[in-house]
Amino acid sequence: MKIDVIISANHIDENKIKDKIVVVIDMFRATSVITAAINNGCKAVIPYLTIEETLEASKKFNKGEYLLGGERNAVRIENFDLSNSPLEYTRNMVNDKTVLMTTTNGTRALTKSLGAKRIFVAAMINGEAVAEKLININEDVVIVNAGTNGEFSMDDYICGGYIINSILKEKKSVQLTDIAKTSNMIYESNSNIISYVKHASHYALMKSINLDEDIDYCMKKSIIDVVPEYINGKIIPYNLD
């Protein structure tokens, strides 16, 4: 198994992800939202690049079958049902519903990764479950960090390091690129997470708009065992097997 890291959605290269297992991370907050929603009984999350595409897609659903979720610049989109807070995607809210979702960074990274062999959704909250899934598959992996507005994001990077570190604890024959090695080293030096992410620009943005509860939730390690998979245009539950 070889593991590589792509630092943002802007840096996704079709040649680098072709025939690879891709793991998309947007720790603050899209992939945390998707993981929480799937864990709480959501039938599927369908990611869209734009608000317009999301609204157009909603016309194909009957009232009561779907919810609109997402954000722009960390703020809920006008007339959408839910923001990009994982705490809103409770079982009472999302159970048996389809979530149509668009976000600034996360859904862009997902839709740009469609050339991969398989696409999994990862966050701190399901990191060990993702690691176990990758070990079981035992193929080359590319971790795609969503980043922030196309740029490198410290929070996604340390989350990838956590997943890499979890793999290395169970599997020794793993080849890491330099950027993947560095991601693991960052995690090993900051396993409490906050000592590193408190310096991230996206962390500062979330703090400035009082999203402290979301921050705390998204930094929790492996509280969910579900591994969502993006397949045939939908993100669905893919429980460990």
SSE layout and pairings?
Elements: E1 2-6, H1 14-17, E2 21-25, H2 30-39, E3 44-47, H3 51-58, E4 66-72, E5 75-76, H4 91-94, E6 98-102, H5 106-111, E7 118-122, H6 127-137, E8 141-145, H7 154-170, E9 175-176, H8 178-189, H9 194-197, H10 201-208, H11 212-218, E10 229-231, E11 234-236
Parallel strand pairs: 1-8, 1-9, 2-7, 2-8, 3-6, 4-6
Antiparallel strand pairs: 4-5, 7-10, 10-11
Brief rundown of the structure:
This protein has a 7-stranded mixed sheet. A 4-stranded mixed sheet has the order 3-6-4-5, with helices on both faces. The mean pLDDT is 96.
- Order of strands in the sheet with the most strands? 9-1-8-2-7-10-11
CA-based shape: globular
Helix tally?
11
Q: How many domain units? A: 1
CATH homologous superfamily (4th level) name? ComB-like
Arithmetic mean of pLDDT: 96
Percentage of β-strand residues: 15-25%
Structural class: alpha/beta
CATH classification, class level: Alpha Beta
User: Using DSSP, what is the number of strands?
Assistant: 11
Evaluate the radius of gyration: 16 Å
Cofactor: Mg(2+)
Organism: Clostridium uliginosum
Pfam families: 2-ph_phosp
Keywords: Hydrolase, Magnesium
Description:
By secondary structure, this protein is an alpha/beta fold. It is built from 11 helices and 11 strands. The chain has a single domain (2-139, 148-232), classed as ComB-like (putative 2-phosphosulfolactate phosphatase). The chain has helices at 14-17, 30-39, 51-58, 91-94, 106-111, 127-137, 154-170, 178-189, 194-197, 201-208, 212-218; strands at 2-6, 21-25, 44-47, 66-72, 75-76, 98-102, 118-122, 141-145, 175-176, 229-231, 234-236. A 7-stranded mixed sheet has the order 9-1-8-2-7-10-11. A 4-stranded mixed sheet has the order 3-6-4-5, sandwiched between helices. It is globular and about 50 Å long. The mean pLDDT is 96.
